[in-house]
Design a protein that fits this description.
about 160 residues; alpha/beta; Aconitase, domain 4; 4-stranded parallel sheet; 8 helices; 7 strands; about 35% helix; globular
Amino acid sequence: MKVWKYDQNGINTDQLFPGKYTYKCSTAEEIRPYLLEDLDATFSGEAKKGDIIMAGRNFGCGSSREQPVVGLKDIGVAAIIAKSFARIFYRAAINQGLLLIQSPEAVEAYSDGKNFELNADKGEIRIDGELFTFPPLPDKILEISDAGGLLPYTRAKLKNRK
C-alpha cells in the first residue's frame, strides 16, 4: 500500500481526469490510463489496489463528471483522505463505493516514509503511531462502500425483499 500525497488545495476533476477525454472514454479500462494525468503522470501506471490518496481542501471541485471516481475505484484506491471535499465529488464517490475521509490533521501529519494505518470502521488513522480520529462513517455509507457502490447495494436490497 502506498500513500499518494498531494500538498495542494482545489484539486479539480480536470486534474483527476482531463476533460479532453470525457467523450472518448466511458469504461473504467478506458479511463484508467488518464487518471491524474495533469497532476501526477506516474499515478496511473504505478497505483495499486489498496493505495491511499491524501490531499488538501476542496478535493474534487470542478465539473460533475463521474470518470475520476469510476477510474479511482477501478484502480483499487482504498480511500481518499483530504482536508475537505467538493460536495458533488463526495456524492459521486458514495455512489461508486469509494471511501472518502475528512481529516485535516492526518493530512498535515503525513509525509513520505511514515508508517500509515487506516481503520475506517473505528474512525482511526495512525501515522507513525500517532492516532488521528474522525467521526465513524455512517453505517449506510460503509454498507454502500462494502457492496461496491450504490447500484450493487440497491440491487442486493431489492433482491433480498423478494
